[in-house]
Amino acid sequence: MAPKVFNQDVLQHLANADRQLFTHFGLGEAVEQPFECVHHAFEHHAHQHPYTFAVEDFEHKISYIELNRQANCLATHLRSKGIGPGSRVCLLVERSVFMVVGILGVLKAGAAYVPLDGNVVADKTLNHALKDSGSSLVLVLRKFVHRIGETPIMCLEDTICESPYSTHCRKPEDWATCNDSAYIIYTSGTTGVPKGVDVMHKNVTNREFLYSPVLELDA
Q: Which has the closest alpha carbon to 194: 90, 99, 138, 121?
């Protein structure tokens, strides 16, 4: 028996040819995802290519193995602060190696990140996003610390462990599931109050798997 088409009542208002096209393209083969969570895909790639450079900015570049180690270290530190599944952590950053370490550290801790560009976001939008998302902590670059009010902060430059001999960089126990939030993205708010969109891990991994042949990503 064919699966039910979502919102059949809406389809009844379409022309018969359009309804058939919608049904045909909407009932593709179900394919099992190779990774349940976003950071699982990263960890797999880091294991496959440990010494390949993963991220580079104007000042730093970092290999997959070192990026994974630093993210584990940050995740462990976040867990010690009570951050885990259900938590939301704001990232007030700019495009950089620190940003990527922050994203992966939050995901490995089991929490969701709320990304905001410290060079662009207005104070009004920043304050709204912090309150609306319920962020319990802000991971922030040193240059943006002055923009945070009462929300607890953690300065990325001071927190990320760069020593390869650190004993605190073991991967924390993985508590995240595919149905957990990966990140909350906010609209610009130019037409009103910025709105947050909650994106789950399975939404991201499904899209990654869909486009992996185009992007030449290996599973």
A: 121
* Residues 67, 207: Cα–Cα separation, whole Å: 23
Write the CA distances from 110 to 139, 172, 181, 213, integer angstroms: 15, 9, 9, 28
Q: Which residues contact 13 (CB under 8 A, 6 or more apart)?
A: none
* pLDDT of 214 higher than 60: no
Pick the more confident residue, 171 or 31: 171
Which residue matches tokens 């550290």? 105
The alpha carbon torsion through 87, 90, 95, 97 (nearest 10 deg) reads -50
Which of the 8 DSSP states describes residue 44?
Answer: H
Q: How many residues belong to the chain?
A: 219
Quote the longest CA-to-CA distance of the chain. Answer: 66
- What is the rounded CA–CA span in Å between residue 103 and residue 90? 10
Tokens of 203: 């939404």
* Residue 17: band (very low, low, confident or very high) from pLDDT cuts 50, 70, 90: confident
Cβ neighbours for 219, distance < 8 A, ≥ 6 positions apart: 34, 44, 209, 212
Which residue's entry shows tokens 């993205």?
185
Q: How many CB atoms lie under 10 A from the CB of residue 53? A: 12
Q: pTM, whole model, 2 decimals?
A: 0.83
* Single-letter amino acid, residue 132: D
**The token pair that represents 191 in the structure block:** 């037409």
Hey, how many other C-beta atoms are within 10 angstroms of the C-beta on 110? 23
